[in-house]
Amino acid sequence: MRFGVIGRILGIMIGLFSIASFIPAILVAELYNEKHDALTLSFIISALVGTLVFLGAALIRYVSQDQGRRYELRVRDGFIITALFWFTLSMLGSLPFFLSNQLQLSPAEAIFESFSGLTTTGATVISGLDELPHGILIYRQLLQWIGGIGIIVIAVAVLPALGVGGLQLYKSETPGPIKDSKLTPRIAETAKSMASIYLGLTVACMISYYIAGMGGFDALAHALSTTAIGGFSTHDASMGYFESDSILWVATVFMVLSGLNFALHFITWQQTSIRHYFQDSEAKFYLSLLFIGATITVLYLWSKGIFDFEESLVHGTFMLVSIATTTGFATQDFSQWPLFLPFLLFFMAFIGGCSGSTGGGMKVMRWLLLARQGQRELYRLVHPNAVRHVKMNNRVVSTRVLESVWGFVAIYMLAFVLSWLALLAMGYDFLTSFSAVAACINNLGPGLGDVAMNYQGLGEGAKLLLSFTMLLGRLEVFTLLVLFTRTFWRD
Fold first, then answer.
1. Residue 48's CB: how many other CB atoms inside 10 A?
2. What is the mean pLDDT of residues 157-182?
3. Over the Cα atoms of the chain, what is R_g?
4. For 267, which of 44, 103, 146, 342 is 20 to 30 Å away at the CA?
5. Residue 57 pLDDT level (bands cut at 50, 70, 90)
6. Maximum Cα interatomic distance, the chain, rounded to a whole number of Å
């Protein structure tokens, strides 16, 4: 492995992260004339740490013997960079939370909040959001926005200029079981296209929120977390703070869009046609699941007399889409609904968004492949000698992909169960343990029981465990766990 190259790339990414997160937070704090010297100082210190790492990486490149060479990263290099990137950035991102006098968080709480932001989980240990400085609030939203697109995918757009190919980075970070397809022939162009679409969707969401009645700051902040499918809000009451059906419908539309494969957005923009959304097998399955789930939720709320039909339609649809796409916004305390609905919503979160989206969960593509594999096995029971292939978008899916899907599901559920048992061993009740692990590994955020409102009441060990669980979910288990195998480190 080329540790010098890996170090340079990590340093550059940390520098980009510092520019994209700490500096805007400082500017927002100054814009609102917030006299919080300790807050500003915490961002400055964090930015200086990131800058020093960046300068160190630049120095390594300058003095290295191979600065004029080009490298194509190997598979192992891509996995190491991806895992170290998310870990180091989450640790660096925790500095403002830990150093801020306004928050007074412990190291474990600061790490939890940072991991939650960058992995777009949306779980929080902070209360009193309405009273916090704007600098902290926008910083939390920026963490999610950066994590949503995956700064690695953005960074590979500049790697060719550094003499490093980025294909392995892209393949190890991009969600979904089929990772070899690219939007454009060159990986740098792919990353630029994804970043452009992501930025455009964010701007459109912000404008829509503003038109629907949000203030300018709230519109920007919630657009950042909506497009990232993150769920952080600037208010303790989340989306319920605004008491506006228009805002909820805007959020619902953009959560659905952000949960779709960004490759479809790219093709739609390029060809100015939406027909691709209705031709893609995964997109059709995803939209059908949301429609069926929303219908069940709305009718159940109405039939139980919790809301009238209009309120059931608005809140039921919003909450189903929010949880199913793993965004985590809320208008109601859904933990108080009849128990059937919270569990329905959580199981929808295990499905999550489409591959190539900012959503969490196990991804719609995998569930669709499992369903079609199940159909094939049922067919073979009746026709044992028949040859029947599993197809996706009229293409035969290879046995290797199907095997990887089964392997992923097995490891994912094993990680879930082990983490759940660990929380039970720490003394937490069944519902709290189940929902906390489910919310974190699916990058969802809100839970049930003791974590229905926030995660403040959990112990330090539980917060660190759940931080690791968030990272497992964001990196889709294999990318992180492969580093703990002997085979990976053998020459």
1. 12
2. 49
3. 22
4. 146
5. low
6. 76
Q: Could you give the 3-state DSSP secondary structure of residue 62?
A: helix
Q: CA–CA separation, 148 vs 131, rounded Å?
A: 26
Residue 173 pLDDT: 54
Q: What is the pLDDT of residue 277?
A: 87
Over 70: is that where the pLDDT of 255 sits? yes
Residue 205: DSSP 8-state: H
Beta-bridge partner residues of 72:
165
Beta strand 395-396 with 164-165: parallel, antiparallel or unpaired?
unpaired
Question: Could you tell me if 329 and 239 are in contact, meaning their C-beta atoms sit under 8 angstroms apart?
Answer: yes
Task: Quickly list DSSP for 226-245.
Answer: HHTT----SSTTGGGGT--H
Distance in angstroms (rounded) separating the CA atoms of residues 411 and 418:
10
In terms of Cα–Cα distance, which of 414, 448, 412, 398 is closest to 428? 448
468 backbone dihedrals φ, ψ, rounded to 5°: -65, -40
Contact 269, 197 (CB under 8 A): yes
Three-state DSSP state, 71: strand
Q: Helix 187-212 vs helix 262-271: angle between axes, to the nearest 10 degrees?
A: 90
Q: Residue holding tokens 């189903």?
A: 320
List the chain domain ranges: 3-188
Is 114:91 a contact under the CB 8 Å cutoff? Answer: yes
Taking the C-alpha atoms of residue 122 and residue 325, their distance in angstroms, rounded to an integer, is 12
Query: What count of other Cβ atoms lies within 10 Å of the Cβ of residue 240?
Result: 18
Q: Which residues pair with 71 in a beta bridge?
A: 164
Lowest-confidence pick of 172-186, 338-352, 422-436: 172-186
Residue 221: which of 213, 212, 209, 211 has the closest Cα?
A: 209
Looking at residue 159, its pLDDT comes to 44
Structure confidence at residue 358 (pLDDT): 85
- Mean pLDDT lowest among 202-206, 266-270, 279-283, 449-453: 266-270
Give the C-alpha separation, 182 to 56, whole Å.
Answer: 33
- In this prediction, residue 160 carries a pLDDT of 46
Residue from 376, 346, 367 nearest 176 by CA = 367
Side chain identity, residue 491: D
Q: What percent of the chain has pLDDT over 70?
A: 85
Q: Is 408 helix (H, G, I), strand (E, B) or coil?
A: helix
- Angstrom distance (rounded) from CA 87 to CA 96: 16
pTM for the whole structure? 0.89
Nearest to 57 by CA among 25, 88, 79: 88
Q: Which amino acid is at 4?
A: G
Beta pairing partners, 396: 391
Phi, psi at residue 456, to the nearest 5°?
-60, -35
Average confidence (pLDDT) over 47-69: 62
